[in-house]
Amino acid sequence: ADTKMPNFNVLGLDDLKDALPLIDYITPNEDEARYYTGREKPAEMAEVFLEYGVRNVIIKLGGKGCCFRNAEEDYTLQPLPVHAVDSTGAGDCFIAGFASEILRGSNHEEALRFANACGAICTTAVGAGTALKSREQVLQWMKD
Asked: Per the confidence metrics, is the pTM higher than 0.90?
């Protein structure tokens, strides 16, 4: 589940509590996670989602990387160095990269490293779909 800040109705996790245990992965950015959980630290934010029954939590931290947590794993990946010019679509590219690698059979850490690269590449050009072209491009960028 991707999240966003509520526009018209004020919603909290208690309003969503029946649906949260059905979520395999929730992927808020840091501001959204702060809003929904009331916590300041990413690990604490992730813990709140887990307490509501979400199986895996990925908190996108923008230029600070990402935080991943589930019942067995807990780690933060640092951001990749890039000359960012536009962050439009970076979170979406991140999640697309993560999902594609999970579907290919990668473990969480491998999938998150690939996702980090997708998000980073996305920021190197103006527009959500300008810089990121292919899986091969991401793999080569990671290699370099």
From this structure: yes
